[in-house]
Amino acid sequence: MKLLRHRDIPEEKYTNAFLGFGPEESNFVVELTYNYGVTSYDIGEGFGHFGIATEDVYKLVEKLRALGGNITREPGPVKGGASVIAFVKDPDGYTFELIQRGPTPEPLCQLMLRVGDLDRSIKALGMKLLRKIDRPEYKYTLAMVGYADEYQTIVLELTYNYGVTEYTKGNAYAQIAVSTDDVYKSAEVVNHVTQELGGKITRQPGLIPGINTKITSFLDPDGWKTVLVDNVDFLRELHKED
């Protein structure tokens, strides 16, 4: 990925780096956070992996291997299918699935999280259900949810392992961020959804100290955090830093 943006917030004692395959206005990006003085974190059991699409998994794996990368699953077809994948880990222990695909506008194509109730999670997030895959022979079910076709933008891959209803979250993976035209109205909708399905609002709508961008945040029924970010403020923040 490319380093798109870097910001230091000394009054809050953290630094961010934003990485992605395209500009933040149109692409999904990873926000890396360094908290002053903290050198290690617990990833937990619930976070699964990031998915990256590439036209040649074998070639990318060899490149990563030459750089000292940790290949945890050699490239090859998935069990019972034709898709070619591989798995690698970064130096902090995050897992990346490499998926062989044709050209795509969004190579950062998946974020996998484990959930305890798949149907509840699909409804709670409010995204479109793109496809659902049940693999009883391996005792899990997957649901791909997102705002557009999974070959055009990033999707959430929600995984339900038969009989498992809770996972440890650790303290490393933080949240996903979704833009909205009105954080106040969005917070009202979230409040209704959490009352019906579970979860809770963790930050009432308002400005982030030191950044002046309006956000609201909530936990879904599985405890995964989502931050809703004001569109206008976000674009202003980007242009100000440019």
Automatic annotation (TrEMBL):
What is annotated as the active site?
97
Name the source's superkingdom. Answer: Eukaryota
Q: Which residues bind Zn(2+)?
A: 31, 49, 97
Q: Any one cellular component term from GO for this entry?
A: cytoplasm
InterPro entries noted in UniProt: Glyas_Bleomycin-R_OHBP_Dase, Glyas_Fos-R_dOase_dom, Glyoxalase_1, VOC_core
The cofactors required by this protein are:
Zn(2+)
Catalytic activity field = (R)-S-lactoylglutathione = methylglyoxal + glutathione
Q: Quick one: a GO biological-process term for this protein?
A: methylglyoxal catabolic process to D-lactate via S-lactoyl-glutathione
Q: How is the cofactor bound?
A: Binds 1 zinc ion per subunit. In the homodimer, two zinc ions are bound between subunits.
Gene3D superfamilies assigned:
2,3-Dihydroxybiphenyl 1,2-Dioxygenase, domain 1
Which keywords are on file for this protein? Answer: Lyase, Metal-binding, Zinc
Query: Start and end of every VOC domain?
Result: 1-101
**What residue ranges carry the coiled-coil annotation?**
none
Citing just one GO molecular function, the answer is: lactoylglutathione lyase activity
Instruction: State what protein this is by name.
Output: Glyoxalase I
